[in-house]
Design brief:
- By secondary structure, the chain is α+β, with helices and mostly antiparallel strands.
- The chain has 3 helices and 6 strands.
- The strands form 2 sheets. Strands 3-6-4-5 form a 4-stranded mixed beta sheet, with helices on one face.
- Helix 3 links the parallel strand 4 and strand 5.
- The longest helix has 18 residues.
- It is globular.
Length: about 140
């Protein structure tokens, strides 16, 4: 593991009433080169074209693929992700979004904050996620 993950937990234990399975931590201690990502939305990084889907799962896959691509382009790996902030326009999408996000952070244990917001920059976007990663010294 690239960083010290303090008080690791899984959301299936924290939220037993929800069908979640995300590896998270209460804190991450990291030293190295910090990568701050802009909030990622369900659009192509090269063309800024939205994906065609209004499904929260498909939108989350694109968002997480963008995060992975950007972290790797900056010289990092997903295991270097230390923090995620998830913005949802509808709390009813939470489980689907978090389950999908969990596929990309299995074993990573970043810290994570989730917010429900009135809207995102485009009305068709259901989810936006910003990330911070630290490439170890």
């Amino acid at each position: 593991m690239a960083h010290t993950r303090h008080r690791k937990f899984n959301t299936k234990d924290t939220y037993p009433e929800q069908k979640l399975d995300n590896d998270l931590a209460q804190a991450v201690v990291a030293r190295g080169t910090v990568i701050f990502l802009r909030g990622q939305c369900p659009q192509d990084l090269d063309t800024a074209k939205n994906i065609e889907s209004h499904d929260p799962v498909e939108q989350t896959h694109k968002v997480m693929q963008n995060i992975r691509q950007l972290v790797e382009e900056c010289g990092g790996r997903m295991e270097h992700v230390t923090k995620l902030v998830v913005y949802l326009t509808d709390v009813r999408h939470r489980e689907a979004v978090y389950r999908t996000m969990g596929e990309y952070i299995r074993g990573v244990h970043p810290v994570c904050t989730g917010l429900v917001v009135v809207a995102l920059a485009r009305p068709e976007w259901l989810v936006e996620i910003d990330a911070t990663a630290v490439i170890p010294d």
